[in-house]
Amino acid sequence: MKRRARIAGLLALPMTWLIGIYIFSLVMLLVTAFWVTDPFTSKVKPGFTMRNFEQLVVNPAYLSTSLRTLGIALAVTALSILVSVPLGIFMAKVASPWLRAVLAVSITLPLWAGYLVKILAMRITFTEEGFFNWLVAPFGIRGPGFSLFTAVLTLTYLWLPYMAVPVYTAIRQLPPNLFDASADLGAGSWRTIRTVVLPLIKPAIIAGSVFTFSLSLGDYLAARFVGGDTQMIGSVIASNINLNPPLAAAFSVVPIAFVVIYLVSVQRTGALERM
After folding, report:
1. Closest CA to 100 of 109, 87, 82
2. Where does the pLDDT of residue 167 fall: very low under 50, low under 70, confident under 90, or very high at 90 and above?
3. N or C, which end of the chain is more exposed by having fewer CB within 10 Å?
4. Is the distance from CB of 256 to CB of 237 less than 8 angstroms?
5. Mean pLDDT of 121-142
6. Angle, alpha carbons 32-260-80 (nearest 5°)
7. CA–CA separation, 180 and 51 (whole Å)
8. In a domain, 205, yes or no
9. Share of the chain above pLDDT 70, in %
10. Domain tally for the chain?
11. What is the mean pLDDT of residues 36-55?
12. What is the spatial distance between Cα 270 and Cα 265, in angstroms, rounded to a whole number?
């Protein structure tokens, strides 16, 4: 009896947060998505209609925004993997201790600053008179400016630590003799990475991708400040939160659905069971 009381006391606060606040808020969000907005008074009326969800598919602008956001999230995740894997191998197996410490600080440095500070730093970097254009001007090259490409770079800059840290930790735990054995068997560097390293660090990559993918789906300030005319799901939600809350709620379900589909797909690979 005392053991059950201790367990109940231990779980009371987290379960209150999970069920009473987090899950309840998501349920209310879903319920609001079926409500209607009076076109004359702009007041939200409780009811049940599928019109808000229909607009997400029928309206070409909403559909293209959803697909664009999905593409951005996948691009950020892929770019983070491409950077994190070779960087993690270098840090864990090649770099000296002092250089490893410098790189670790450099990777986690973006986490030390506020979110808006990092967005503004990227905006200053890629503005017309910014650092990037100044750097490539002698070669007759101009930067991408505020565009979709810049938004992807900014989101990668923001969320890269969430991929790089678990990948580096996983690679550091690999026995050095695996690399020696692969070399003795005649495998080159790239083949070793593809056939030895990647299968072993797959759970770490999956764990990092969950963060980079989901955080990129929910972002919209990067597109607003450095994306030019790029629209993401968050942009549409922010513009409709006061004008048409049910539509904003319906659109909020889209990134949740994307994340659920992604997690289900990952779970079928069995990677989550080895995490």
Report:
1. 87
2. very high
3. N
4. no
5. 85
6. 120
7. 61
8. yes
9. 89
10. 1
11. 79
12. 9
Look at residues 168, 194, 203, 196 and name the one whose alpha carbon lies nearest to residue 94: 168
Q: What is the pTM of this model?
A: 0.86
Asked if residue 153 is part of any domain, the answer here is yes
Q: Give Cα 74 to chain centroid, integer Å.
A: 9
Of 202, 12, 170, 159, whose CA–CA distance to 92 is shortest? 170
Tokens 């004359």 -> residue: 40
Locate the DSSP E strands across the chain.
36-37, 44-45
In angstroms, the CA 212 to CA 196 distance is 24
Residue 112 is given by DSSP the state G
Q: What is the dihedral of CA 26, 27, 30, 31, to 10 degrees?
A: -140
Q: Does residue 34 form part of some domain?
A: no
Domain CATH for 149: 1.10.3720.10
Q: Record the tokens describing residue 228, joined without a space.
A: 């030019």
CB neighbour list of residue 4: distance below 8 Å, 6 or more residues apart: none
What is the spatial distance between Cα 230 and Cα 224, in angstroms, rounded to a whole number?
A: 7
Q: State pLDDT tens for residues 196-243.
A: 788 889 889 998 999 999 999 988 889 889 988 888 998 888 888 878
Query: What is the sign of the dihedral through the CA atoms of 244, 246, 252 and 257?
Result: negative
pLDDT band at 93 (very low <50, low <70, confident <90, very high): confident
